[in-house]
Amino acid sequence: METYVSTGTFWFTVALINAGLAEQKNRSRWIWFLVSLLLGPIATLLLVVWRAPEPVPPSMTHRGGWKEPVGDR
């Protein structure tokens, strides 16, 4: 019996949708894409049920570190 959408196409489409959903929830798009290829709709359930992580405030160390202003000593 032929199916309208092959199983591989369905699994890949679910993985793409999960990648977009993961990005909206502040999670890694690539990691969830790969997890979705393995778990499929179960990964979708996990993304929807788990709370999004709190955003981390930006720090100066990511931009080369904080430098003290050079002044009179």
Description of the structure:
The chain is mainly alpha-helical. It has a domain at 7-52. It has three helices and no strands. The model has no long low-confidence stretch (mean pLDDT 82). This is DUF805 domain-containing protein. The chain crosses the membrane at residues 30-50. Keywords: Membrane, Transmembrane, Transmembrane helix.
Strand coverage percent:
under 5%
Task: List how many beta strands DSSP finds.
Answer: 0
Give the end-to-end Cα distance, rounded to a whole number of Å: 84 Å
Radius of gyration: 20 Å
Question: What is the succession of H and E elements?
Answer: HHH
Overall, the morphology is: elongated
Number of helices: 3
Class from helix and strand fractions: mainly alpha
Task: Provide the helix percentage.
Answer: 40-55%
Task: Characterize the largest beta sheet: strand count, sense, and whether it forms a barrel.
Answer: none
Average per-residue pLDDT, rounded, comes to 82
Unreliable parts? none
Ordered list of secondary-structure elements with their pairings:
Blueprint: H1 7-24, H2 29-39, H3 41-49
Helix pairs in contact: 1-2, 1-3, 2-3
Protein name: DUF805 domain-containing protein
Organism: Arthrobacter gengyunqii
Keywords: Membrane, Transmembrane, Transmembrane helix
Summary, kept brief:
This protein is mainly α and 73 residues long. The chain is built from three helices and no strands.
Keywords:
73 residues, mainly alpha, 3 helices, 52% helix, elongated, transmembrane, membrane, transmembrane helix, DUF805 domain-containing protein
